[in-house]
Specification:
The chain is mainly β and about 120 residues long. It is about 0% helix and about 55% strand. It has strands at about 5, 10-15, 20-25, 35-40, 45-50, 55-60, 65-70, 75-80, 90-100, 100-105, 110-115. Strands 2, 4, 5, 6, 9, 10 and 11 form a seven-stranded mixed sheet that branches. It has a four-stranded antiparallel sheet with strand order 1-3-8-7, with no helix packed on it. The model has no long low-confidence stretch (mean pLDDT about 95).
Length: about 120
């Protein structure tokens, strides 16, 4: 059974940086495509970034140039480095993957950016 556990969220001022991580267990990360999503209060969950098993990367337009997704297959961990944070980046950030046709989610980590 694949499990995802996020960590690294917190409170940061606008313009600051945070790195959040997603630890994967139950399957080798090198075989998985991974994504980060976020949900702000009162809003729909939205895509933030993804990285395929072969390293192909995609970003939401509003985070391009500020966020960097990466994977460490030796540690079975995916990271999201977030720089130049803005108040509108506030939300619960969750990592996601699909295994055998099923979507798997972590519990999320809260990121709060103060103005």
């Amino acid at each position: 059974q694949v499990q995802l556990v996020e960590s690294g969220g917190g409170l940061v001022q606008a313009g600051g940086s945070l790195r959040i991580s997603c630890a994967v267990s139950g399957r080798a990360l090198r075989t998985l495509a991974m994504g980060w999503f976020r949900q702000a209060p009162g809003k729909e969950r939205e895509f933030v970034a993804s990285i395929d098993w072969n390293g192909y990367i995609s970003y939401k337009d509003s985070v391009k140039g500020r966020f960097t997704i990466s994977r460490d297959n030796t540690k079975n961990t995916v990271h999201l480095q977030m720089n130049s944070l803005k108040p509108e980046d506030t939300g619960v950030y969750c990592c996601n993957t699909r295994v055998d046709g099923y979507s798997v989610w972590g519990q999320g980590t809260q990121v709060t950016v103060s103005s």
